[in-house]
Design goal:
The complex is a heterodimer. By secondary structure, chain A is mainly α. Chain A is built from 14 helices and no strands. Chain B has a single domain, classed as Rossmann fold (3-Layer(aba) Sandwich). In chain B, the strands form two sheets. In chain B, strands 6-7-8-3-9-10 form a six-stranded mixed sheet, with helices on both faces. Chains A and B meet through helix 11 and helix 12 of A and strand 6 and helix 2 of B.
């Protein structure tokens, strides 16, 4: 372990470990989800727009913005092309800076390995199947947890929205549960549900359940009384009211929330994998860190952020398709 | 079908105890196939009356009747239109119009045909595939009217359906309503606060007092049918309108 020896000579003990780096990257991943959470709040406001009567001002505002944009756009085609390429450009710049730091030897290579070595490790881990194996485990935990969490969260949300007394009864418990950091009770869950994927699924379920429930309640409460009256005078059954009014109305808010939940689910799975190191990308990162295999840590972290990003994009597409009516504002 | 109220009173329990009298007592009979308007100052309980006849509110005392049925719940024989269009934002125009048939379990082909048949006379054929967010206020109310008409109700209860529209739109859509009504002759009760609109459309106008609303005047409009918009300049029209104006001012 050449790099380890280097480390102990040159740096304080805490830095030997790549742990801070990993934590930083995980926080970055979390940062993505917090950012998307704030976006989704804005969008859930947008969901209400068709229901509100005072919408003219917002449309004129949008028109103003559009006009301003058009004024600035001297060559729309070129601008559009640049805007498409912009994210790739950002990644490219980061890689160049990364390479620069490596070449200048600002930090030893076991802390910041070269982009090339990370790429090499990536190719290797794909070839020997390690990456895909761990990825599939994390994906399973995330998706199953997400599914169960959304199912429980939306059902409970529906019940609470219809039985207000339950909200008063359950809210202290739910809020307490929710404000406790998951990592604090994760060991307990692993003790109860074992080292395998079940315990991680439980963590994901707990993380996903709360925002889903809150979004369901918000969605149901946003259904205007006027629409309920329309269904009542048409003699709709309770079931019809649910399937044709409440469910689609809640779906609009739920899908926006699901984008946040999807990234939260990945975090939940990784937290579980860190606490009980076994299988999955989180465990792969933890093991690689213990072995000072920093390139593999990078591969794991980048794969995780790609996984979260893919899930986010998938839900965005689903939302784009299912909520296409929202794109038609007032003309 | 006949609409009737017999000593109907609606009171709401207030938070600090006690009751708020919203309506009545009101007693009236609206004969089958007549177009009756309900005029009155705002907050007099007109909407409450419509909601009660629709089966959305229950009278504290007395009763509301549609033919021989005491109203306790909504009925598909009664079509109700509210002040706002209340369209479902994720459904297109035709999907909104089809809703009552869908709830009644009608097959899809029948729903499609009915929707086409209803949308055409309302001038909405081209807008079938638009979403409510793309419609103007007037068009949205036309869709709401179509949604009520598609279930072929024998009774129409309209609660200030065109109140939020500008004068031009209002006149056009109310003349369309008049044309459709004269072909189908539903028993129609419409709440309005516009005297001219009430006189131009109705066979009879009921005037309500301030809260709690009671019927304080009952005026027959003996203008010949078919009615047309220029009628408002005729002496017979202005006479009725003036009478109603005075009745409202006394209310």
């Amino acid at each position: 372990m050449r790099e380890g020896e280097n480390c102990e000579r040159m740096l304080p003990v805490g830095f030997c470990n790549t742990w801070p780096l990993v934590m930083m990257l995980i926080h970055m991943l979390a940062g993505v989800s917090y950012a998307t959470a704030s976006i989704s709040i804005l969008e859930s406001g947008a969901f209400l727009i068709p229901f509100q009567s005072a919408k003219k001002s917002s449309t004129t505002m949008k028109a103003d913005v559009r006009r301003q944009r058009q004024k600035r756009a001297y060559s729309p085609m070129l601008l559009k092309g640049i805007r498409r390429l912009a994210p790739i450009l950002t990644v490219l710049i980061i890689v160049i800076i990364w390479q620069g730091i490596y070449t200048a030897e600002v930090y030893p290579s076991f802390l910041i390995p070269s982009p090339a070595s990370v790429l090499e490790t990536f190719v290797e881990s794909v070839q020997d199947g390690i990456l895909l194996y761990h990825l599939s485990i994390t994906l399973q935990e995330t998706l199953i947890g997400l599914l169960i969490g959304v199912a429980i969260g939306s059902s409970l949300g529906y019940i609470i929205a219809n039985v207000p007394i339950l909200e008063d009864l359950l809210s202290p418990l739910i809020v307490a549960f929710q404000s406790t950091p998951t990592i604090a009770y994760a060991p307990l869950l692993i003790l109860w549900f074992g080292n395998d994927i079940q315990s991680k699924i439980v963590i994901v379920v707990i993380i996903v359940f709360f925002p889903t429930m809150m979004n369901t309640i918000a969605g149901l409460r946003a259904v205007p009384e006027g629409l309920r009256d329309v269904f009542k005078v048409m003699k709709a059954t309770r079931w019809q009211l649910f399937t044709k009014l409440e469910l689609p109305a809640a779906l609009a808010v739920l899908l926006v929330g699901l984008k946040t939940s999807a990234t939260l689910a990945v975090i939940g799975a990784v937290v579980g994998e860190f606490v009980s190191v076994n299988e999955g990308l989180g465990s792969m990162v933890a093991i690689a860190r213990n072995q000072y295999d920093t390139p593999l840590v990078f591969v794991g972290v980048i794969s995780l952020s790609l996984l979260a990003l893919s899930l986010y994009t998938l839900v965005s597409f689903l939302e784009y398709y299912l909520l296409r009516w929202r794109r038609f504002g007032r003309t | 079908m006949q609409i009737a109220a017999e000593g109907a009173v609606i009171e709401y329990a207030m938070a600090g105890g006690g009751h708020l009298a919203a309506l009545g007592p009101v007693t009236f009979i609206i004969e089958d196939g007549t177009f009756v308007s309900l005029l009155g100052p705002s907050g007099c309980g007109k909407s409450t009356l419509i909601r009660a006849l629709a089966g959305l509110e229950k009278p504290t005392r007395g009763s509301f009747r549609i033919d021989d049925r005491i109203v306790t719940s909504p009925s598909t024989e009664v079509g109700v239109m509210f002040q706002s269009a209340n369209l479902i934002p994720w459904r297109t125009v035709s999907e909104n119009v089809m809703l009552p048939l869908e709830l009644a379990g009608a097959p899809k082909s029948q729903r499609n045909n009915a929707s086409k048949r209803i949308l055409e006379p309302l001038g909405l054929s081209e807008y079938e595939t638009l979403y409510p967010g793309q419609l103007s206020g007037g068009m949205a109310q036309r869709v709401a009217l179509g949604r009520v008409l598609i279930q072929s109700p024998d009774v129409l209860l309209l609660d200030e359906p065109f109140g939020a529209l500008d004068a031009m739109n209002r006149e056009k859509i109310s003349m369309d309503l008049l044309r459709i009504w004269s072909q189908q002759r539903q028993t129609l009760l419409m709440v309005t606060h516009d005297v001219q609109e009430a006189v131009l459309l109705s066979d009879r106008v009921l005037v309500m007092s301030h809260r709690p609303g009671r019927i304080i005047d009952d005026v027959s409009v003996d203008l010949p049918r078919p009615r047309y918009s220029e009628m408002i300049y005729e002496p017979a029209f202005t006479e009725v309108a003036r009478h109603l104006r005075r009745a409202i001012d006394r209310a």
